[in-house]
Amino acid sequence: MELLMNFLTLFFKVLTLPLQLIEAVGLYQWYKEFFALLMSRISVSYNAKMDDKKRDLFSNLPDFKKPSEPLTVLEIGCGTGTNFKYYPPGCKVICTDPNRHFKKYLEKGMSENSHLSFERFLVAAGEDMGSIEDEAVDAVVATLVLCTVRDMTRTIQEAHRMLRPGGALFFMEHVVAERSSWTYFFQHVLQPMWYYFGDGCELTRSTWNDLEAAGFSELKLKRIEAPLNFLIKPHIVGYAVK
Fold first, then answer.
1. pTM summary value
2. Alpha-carbon distance 5 to 181, whole Å?
3. DSSP-derived 3-state class of residue 151
4. Angle at 31 between CA 29 and CA 35, to 5 degrees
5. What's the pLDDT tens digit per position in 135-170?
6. DSSP letter at 206?
């Protein structure tokens, strides 16, 4: 089975050679604007299907608020702002995303969530958040983000750096399936095509390993089967305390 999987993966890699060339010469940037539009539609559906799970996850946010001070949340890869409605009233939000084309959708999300105070929007990759000071925020949020960053270890290190002691990284991420499953098989076979459709998204990441190795004092993580397309059904949800 593994031999067949490797052969089919190679086959799809060959099919993506034109896309690889387009990316190499810098012409892939046009897709980023379309991707922002696409995600503005897909994220609505994702939120509807994952609403109860998001409410459960973010119900823990107030636990990390300092006494007499507003909760400060930094969201990596905020996209269109679909998490905003789950944040507690009065918290300050710093939004970051490497795709500048999300800004107009993000502004709409901000206008619909007047219970929050928005500090700024930064066009920045998760691996390089140097404009944010050390120990500056109470919570970092990453949902469907660690699958796309180029360096996941570095991104988690950055989250750890920006968190104050006792703060937490909240995550909700699709991950690679069990090795013996057909989902695992198709995740690997279709990964070369999925990468371009998902603007760098990786179906085959074992994200929990990086979280476990990141040096957090406490990790609350659970695996779930999300009510989604079988390729992204395996999820991990939880938070890691600095």
1. 0.94
2. 12
3. coil
4. 125
5. 999 999 999 999 999 999 999 999 999 999 999 999
6. -
